[in-house]
Design goal:
The protein folds into 3 domains: 118 residues, Rossmann fold; 244 residues, Alpha-Beta Horseshoe (pyruvate-formate lyase- activating enzyme), CATH 3.80.30; 53 residues, OB fold (Dihydrolipoamide Acetyltransferase, E2P) (Beta Barrel), CATH 2.40.50.140. The chain contains 13 helices and 19 strands. The chain starts with a strand and ends in a 5-residue tail after the last strand. The strands form 5 sheets. It has a 6-stranded parallel β-sheet with strand order 2-1-3-4-5-6, with helices on both faces. The mean pLDDT is 93. 33% of the residues lie in helices and 22% in strands. Helix 1 links the parallel strand 1 and strand 2. The longest helix has 24 residues. The radius of gyration is 22 Å and the shape is globular. It has 435 residues and is α/β, with parallel strands linked by helices.
Length: 435
């Protein structure tokens, strides 16, 4: 009987896609996917270290696995890179630790574990994790796919651990990316999302002078792919040339995740973000000047060291001016290795939580208003899964839409009239014929 594996993934889309790569290798080795940890011979945690809480959760989960008997346990991802051999020192029942740039060494690590050997693979000089098409990828969705275009980050924001756990920026050659896009198109995929810690700095270190705007034009030419998304963008690299490409290429969806982190120029400077609130708003205004509705989302931090009430009010002002469809907002917590780690964390936790609560209340009102604006409108939706009798998909602006319809609609972009709008979910009816 074949060994079985179970992967639990924490964190961002990069981690989700890394899990697809690991799963592809394991299936190719002859392993089978288990439905639960209890059934698995190999348990993998693909981890996130951006915030402190997920790191504690990883150690908690590993402690629970100790009671599950004779299983091979592996830790992948950003916590693996950050903690390295400390994981095995704290949790001797863990068999291997693999950082993001070494995920294709999963076969070697598993075979060594079967021989009773421990492994720690955290060398960041490897380029292979950016994507090696000689290895299979077991994609979770048959219609929407992730494509890694670059790995790592060179920005070194003072609060952020990403450059330390994901390494420095490495761009994937455009011809390799286009090959993967064509493979996906031939397989019937309709939508792709280009991934990177900072996609719009794409091009560093390549033999050819190619930037992200160039890449978008190239990908746009591939027949069969109908929708293109990308994540995540850094405001400092959002050039006018890139704005023009995003707003004039028809396949690129009207959805932009543009992390602001703060609305205070003083805090942005301390964060080493390399833009001002005014520059950020200028980018938003230039995008909206094209006359198409674009849904913006963002990441925001409250309670950064020395943040005053006045600084916080600047952040509230930013979200009111932009009117994001949604945000990911967090209280600041110090991360080891970062510059801010050694600064006094001087905003009391009670105050951080108050600010977060106020921020989310303001954003919820905006999200509710924008969601309600969809009612009565006809929107294009790519349906990609079924849940409890509902077909579920997303609009070009990334809103979730549910409808009662035949499964034959899966994998198709169809027009839907929105009849009911909740804060994070729309319901509607398919519109037949011309609209």
């Amino acid at each position: 009987m074949a060994d079985k594996f179970f992967i639990r993934t924490f964190g961002c889309q990069m981690n989700e896609h890394d899990s697809e790569k690991v799963k592809g290798v394991l299936l190719d080795m002859g392993l089978e996917e288990a439905e639960s940890e209890k059934e698995a011979d190999l348990i993998l945690l693909n981890t996130c270290a951006v915030r402190e809480k997920p790191v504690h959760k990883v150690y908690s989960e590993l402690g629970r696995f100790k009671r599950m008997g004779d299983k091979v346990i592996g830790v992948l991802g950003c916590v693996a890179q950050k903690e390295g051999k400390r994981i095995i020192e704290r949790m001797p029942h863990v068999d291997f630790v693999i950082g993001p740039r070494n995920i294709y060494r999963i076969k070697e690590a598993f075979e060594r574990a079967r021989e009773g050997k421990k492994s720690v693979f955290t060398d960041q000089s490897s380029r292979c994790a950016v994507t090696d098409l000689s290895f299979p990828i077991a994609r979770e969705n048959p219609y929407r796919a992730y494509i890694t275009i670059m790995e790592g980050c060179d920005n070194f924001c003072s609060y952020c651990i990403v450059p330390f756990v994901r390494g420095r920026e490495v761009s994937r050659p455009p011809e390799d990316i286009l090959e993967e896009v064509k493979i996906l198109s031939d397989a019937g995929y309709k939508e792709i999302t280009l991934l990177g810690q900072n996609v719009n700095s794409y091009g560093k270190g390549l033999d050819k002078k190619v930037d992200f705007a160039d890449l978008l034009h190239m990908v746009h030419e591939v027949e069969g792919i109908e929708w293109i998304r990308f994540i995540t963008s850094h405001p400092k690299d959002f050039s006018d040339r890139l704005i023009e490409a995003v707003m004039t290429l028809p396949k690129i969806c009207e959805y932009i995740h543009l992390p602001a982190q703060s609305g205070s120029n003083r805090i942005l400077e301390l964060m080493n973000r390399k833009y001002t609130k005014e520059r950020y708003l200028e980018i938003v205004e230039k995008i909206r000047s094209y006359g198409k509705y674009v849904a913006f989302t963002s990441d925001l931090i409250v309670g950064f060291p020395t943040e005053t009430e006045e600084d916080f009010q600047e952040t509230l002002d930013l979200i009111k001016k932009v009117e994001y469809e949604g945000i990911f907002a967090f209280v600041y917590n110090p991360r080891e290795f970062t510059r801010a780690y050694n600064w006094e964390d001087d905003v009391p936790m009670e105050e951080k939580k108050r600010r977060l609560s106020e921020l989310l209340k303001v954003q919820d009102e905006i999200t509710q208003k924008l969601s309600k604006s969809y009612e009565g409108k006809v929107v294009d939706v790519l349906f990609d899964r079924e849940e409890s009798g509902w077909l579920v998909g997303r609009t070009r602006t990334f809103k979730i839409v549910k409808t009662r319809a035949d499964k034959s609609r899966l994998g198709h972009i169809v027009k839907v009239k929105i009849t009911e709008a909740k804060m994070y979910e729309l319901k509607g009816e398919i519109v037949e014929g011309d609209v």
